[in-house]
Amino acid sequence: MMDEEELDLSTQAIPTIAAAQKQLGEAMDAAKAGESKELAQMVRDKGDRFVRVLSGTISLSRIHDLRNRAFDQPVSDLCSAIETMHDLLGPVTLIMVEDQVYVNDIRIRFGVGSDAGVNLGRIWAQHNVGGLMFHEPISEEQIRLLVKLVSSDPAEDGARTILQSKFNQAGLSMLQLQPMYRFREQWERGTKIGADAKKAYSMSSGAVGSVWDDLAAGRSLNPLPVRKAMSELADMDRGETAKGIAENAKDIKRPAMVRHSVQVATLALLIGREIGLSEAALSDLGVTASFHDAGYGVDEHGFPPPFERHGTAGVRLMLEQRGFHEARIRRMLACLQHHQPFAHVPKPSLFARIIRIADDYDTMTRYRSTGPFETPPYALARMYAAAGTLYDPDLLQVFINAVGQFPPGSILEMAGGSWVTVISGCRSPETWAQPLCLMIRTREGNTPAFELELDLAKGGDIAAVLSASDLYGFDH
After folding, report:
1. Which residue in 126, 175, 220, 412 has its CB near the most CB atoms, within 10 A?
2. Domain 4-33+186-403: which topology?
3. Most distant pair of Cα atoms in the chain: their distance
């Protein structure tokens, strides 16, 4: 997020931090050399053992007392596996979805006929838990407490919340329970099922909000819940995305950083879809855009870092996580480069160039206590003037083509005196300057008694573009 004094879109580049750049370069070399494959195999081996032993231990606890010596070796094995995985990965996230199990994005592949993953998933599903995150290694006594609590009868209502409370009371606050997950069926993709804007934005706000809560508590970044939320946003059709952009722009109830992160992710995903990124790449882009300002969550003597250092602060957060893969490298590059101009040598990465457009556009058009800094059409005009210098001209043109001359959230005064707000992006080349609108004030100056849509492709002359202060009375 740019400070307001940065809104002149100056070309000042962020300072180079040699140490962070050097570590990032080494990480990229390691990934290219195939070390990430070796890491993945080690995680699979340890993860397979961990899942089998945990599932067996919980099942055994329903027959024998946990103080029985029969539990000594399994409990010791579990502690060792968690400690080893923590050394490799940092915080360890175990996700159970249907019959599959993942450890930090790496799928654990069980042998033919093994039902360890299914059994473990069923055990936790009784408490409405789809995963758990170990923020730090745990002791053998804590393993026994974990097994005892998850083996207890689930609560009828709010099972996951109640189980988390029991964990916290038992001194297991380093364990963070995750919600249930499911895979989307092929027939669901591209339909409105699961793609309702309000549901998707609520899910995204919750996941991103948890990231900022974790940072405030000194915890590590956890991309898994955010990745799921970004997949929901990426699956929304153009119409739902446009409505979401319009609603999210004027939402001042959510924390500013949460709203900004979600909006930047939505705008970045819009560009990513238009240029044909794969589904996996879109998820990575959404997570990267959500984390682009994570550096502001770093505590520097009681304050977040200044604008000039927030990119490198974000990279330091990601460097604290053990192990490297391509997605993490893309996130680090975007943190470092998302304020670099397109004309910078070398050019910023693709994700950084996309996020630069989304970040600056949202910064100019987001609502503050005094209203947006610029109207959406004027923000586009300012950015278009900097195409080829600050912004990748091809990506910027893609963005403009997608949102149209009057982007979602624009407020227009019609020739008859009524006011409308734009709720669509560009629906076709022929209607680039003729969006779908919702009337918000009649020509008599009244609020409409019911929702009334106006399709400018079917007629209607625009008299003026209004600022939010005209409608909402901001002192702008």
Report:
1. 412
2. Hypothetical protein af1432 (1.10.3210)
3. 84
